[in-house]
Amino acid sequence: MNLDKAYQELTAIFKPEQLLRHESMSRHTSFRIGGPVDLMIQPADSEQIKLAFDILKKYDIPFMIMGNGSNLLVRDKGIRGAVIKIAERFSQAEVRDDTIHAQAGILLSALSRLALISGLRGLEFASGIPGTLGGAVAMNAGAYGGELKDVVQWVSVLDENGTINILNKEELAFGYRTSIIQHTGLIVLEVFIGLERGNYEESRALMQELTRRRQEKQPLSYPSAGSAFKRPVGYYAGKLIQDAGLKGMRVGNAQISEKHSGFIINLGNATACDVIELIEKVKARVREQTGVELHPEVKIVGEE
């Protein structure tokens, strides 16, 4: 791995503010937790993503892709190599009749607002999901009965050979909180969303109602990564955790939320070690009491 040589080549392509060295990942995750990454790259278009990919591969530098960091827990020693952050710098979207063609870095909240003001319905469920479109497609994010698989028509992706391909809905192999993106190393570049003509007032009212429900039930005033565990078949993770008597349980400054047991929150300066230890304690207690195995929904990355 020759990070210095790669960095020199990247400086010929990217502006200084797009290349961050020894950047704390706590600034880029909704958990507000994480050690430094050696190099963060923030591309502004598909060509820059491809060029960054090619240079990192050329110098054998390990890298990962991230969006808004809303489903990410970075360990305390940080990340060796590079992170390509596909977020606000890569977030353009265009409405065409009853469809939206969007770059992967756009926030779902912004995308759902664009649909609303364009008189389109079908994205109301996504208005309160904090992540980017690319990350949401990768994990088939959903809420309140809706999922990305319901509206995605096709995506453009960059594969491990540096080739851009088009995948349709069937090829994406959507499942519960998963897609082919998660298992193949593909990088989502752009997404084509198919919606329907709707009524502005009805869509706005639905989005306001879903916001009210989130504010009422979820600990939105604390840093977290959303639901800490995937929903086991036939159960709700939050109820299993609550029934096991774990609501409010703490390890350091990481806590099972007293408002919603499915959330782990950062009370202030929690470490990744705190969160991981709490996850393991919850898994063990629930397994012991119910026989159900919980699996984290949050993605854990970085050095042990």
| Number of helical regions | 8
Question: How would the global form be characterised?
Answer: globular
| CATH topology category name of the largest domain | Uridine Diphospho-n-acetylenolpyruvylglucosamine Reductase, domain 3
> What is the top-level CATH class of the largest domain?
Alpha Beta
Numbering strands along the chain, what is their spatial order in the largest sheet?
A: 6-7-13-11-12
Main sheet summary: 5 strands, antiparallel
Q: What structural class do helix, strand and pairing data support?
A: alpha+beta
CATH architecture of the largest domain: 2-Layer Sandwich
As for the number of domains, it is 3
Estimated share of beta-strand residues: 25-35%
Assembly level: single chain
* pLDDT averaged residue by residue: 95
Strands, total number: 19
Poorly predicted regions are none
Summarize this structure as a short list of keywords or feature phrases.
Uridine Diphospho-n-acetylenolpyruvylglucosamine Reductase, domain 1; five-stranded antiparallel sheet; Uridine Diphospho-n-acetylenolpyruvylglucosamine Reductase, domain 3; Uridine Diphospho-n-acetylenolpyruvylglucosamine Reductase, domain 2; about 300 residues; four-stranded mixed sheet; 3 domains; 19 strands; alpha+beta
